Amino acid sequence: MLHAYFAIYTCATSPACKESCDTLLHRHGHGNAWQDAALVIENATEVKFEERIDMGREIGLVSDWVAQGRMPAENDIDVTQWGFKYDELKAHFESSRASSI
What we know:
The chain has helices spanning 2-9, 15-25, 32-49, 57-68, 86-99. It is mostly helical.
């Protein structure tokens, strides 16, 4: 549903706006904006339903990087804001990339 929301509300008419949206969402849909929104949903479900719904944030983020063929350098992205550890994501990325070859 988050993908549908962002698809509807991103601007597709302006190339500059589209590029900005692509940067926030990543071209495959699990970038900064999606991560922020999914984390809020996960946190809210834990409070409201006393059970945390897993939105697949880690898998989505790593899958985006695998599709792009690269992972951002540690100083280029703050994954701790989403509760991740860079080294763990890097291991997941390398494992996923090796299995997709």
